[in-house]
C-alpha cells in the first residue's frame, strides 16, 4: 500500500468544512472564467488533500468550456 501503512484518521468537522471551502473556491474560479469551465466530474474521489489538509480539485479531464457562457 502506498502512502499510509494504516488508514489516516477521520477528518474533524472543521477539517471537512475547510476541504469543502477549498473545493467550492476551485469551482468558483472555474465558473468565473471566460468562457466558464465546467468540471463535469466533481466527487469526493476527485478532491485531493495535501499534508496540511488543503483540498485540491483534481481530474479535470472531462472539463469543458460552457457554451453560451459569454453573458
TrEMBL record:
Keyword Phosphoprotein: no
Keywords: ATP-binding, Nucleotide-binding
GO terms of biological process kind: response to other organism
Domain Protein kinase: 1-71
The keyword S-adenosyl-L-methionine is annotated on this UniProt entry: no
GO molecular function: ATP binding; protein kinase activity
Protein name: Protein kinase domain-containing protein
Amino acid at each position: 500500500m502506498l502512502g499510509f501503512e494504516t488508514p489516516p484518521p477521520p477528518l474533524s468537522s472543521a477539517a471537512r468544512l475547510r476541504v469543502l471551502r477549498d473545493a467550492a473556491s476551485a469551482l468558483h474560479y472555474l465558473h468565473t472564467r471566460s468562457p466558464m469551465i465546467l468540471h463535469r466530474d466533481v466527487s469526493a474521489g476527485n478532491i485531493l488533500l495535501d499534508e496540511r489538509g488543503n483540498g485540491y480539485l483534481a481530474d479535470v479531464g472531462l472539463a469543458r468550456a460552457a457554451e453560451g457562457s459569454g453573458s
